[in-house]
Amino acid sequence: MADEIKIRRLTTLEDMVKVSDLYLLVWSGGEISTITPRTYMDISSNGGVVLGAFYGDRLVGYVFGFLGIDNESLGTTAMTRVKHHSHILGVHPDYRNQGVGLRLKLEQRLAVINQGIRLVTWTFNPLLSNNAYLNIRRLGTVCHTYLRDFYGRMQDDLSIGISSDRFRVDWWVTSPRVVSRVEEKQGPLDQSKYLDSATQKVNPASLGSDDLLHPTDQFNELDGDLALVEIPSDFQALKRQDIELARVWRLHTREIFETAFADGYMVVEFLYYKGGDFPRSYYVLSSRG
Questions:
Q1: By the 8 A CB rule, do 171 and 141 touch?
Q2: What is the rounded CA–CA span in Å between residue 71 and residue 145?
Q3: Which domain holds residue 276?
Q4: Which residues is 285 bridged to in the sheet?
Q5: Are 87 and 152 found together in one domain?
Q6: 208 and 167 within one domain
Q7: Is the dihedral of CA 80, 82, 87, 90 positive or negative?
Q8: 17 with 44, same domain?
Q9: How many domains are there within the chain?
Q10: Which of 2, 66, 146, 261 is deepest in the core (most CB within 10 A)?
Q11: Could you tell me what percent of the chain has a pLDDT over 70?
């Protein structure tokens, strides 16, 4: 099926109606989309990028973004550059875990490179390990920005009941790091290199009597060039079983990442490890100093 899915740029009003319908399906139970088909048309016609994945005539995924400005302070110097902000990536529930999201991001990368843009940014929930694997490990993004409750209270099925904290990732689309990941010329370091080494585990978690992963009451102070931060491997399943534990994980990891980023660390890798009694998921932090 994956070979039969085609990616193309969306440019017609008919395309944009399909995009709006897919949005409501993916984020069901939430507020009605405030992005109208006409708005998608305006953005697509004025420097934005709207790409769709089709299985036959059926839209099964899309990615949507627009031009923006990135301001970065380098010591006493302020730098302003044009960037592309990737606002939404959505895949039909029946077509998830088939590489659709990856293919959409790779086509988006080519589109913005052709515009002369080198930086793409977007946000995602740092407790979702599948998104972290795609964004950090597979695409080669990095992160040093934590956005607390960025979207306020959200009511869709994927977000309800927990604050909308987000990572903002930076995707330097022509950098050697990204090129090596997306072209699979050189993969990331093997997971065992981190897990079997002396790399510090900031928050060693444990499996409770409820068979759910519980964080430590406190986390270790970051010390050294590299550190591992654990998250649940299936946060949505944990959230469905115990919403209060999910909220504990949110506050626990919020404190860790805000502290780490303030101390000059950044996320450079994500690990999913199947060894032991249950899967484990870790972010790798690296000191920028």
A1: yes
A2: 13
A3: 191-287
A4: 227, 267
A5: yes
A6: no
A7: negative
A8: yes
A9: 2
A10: 146
A11: 89
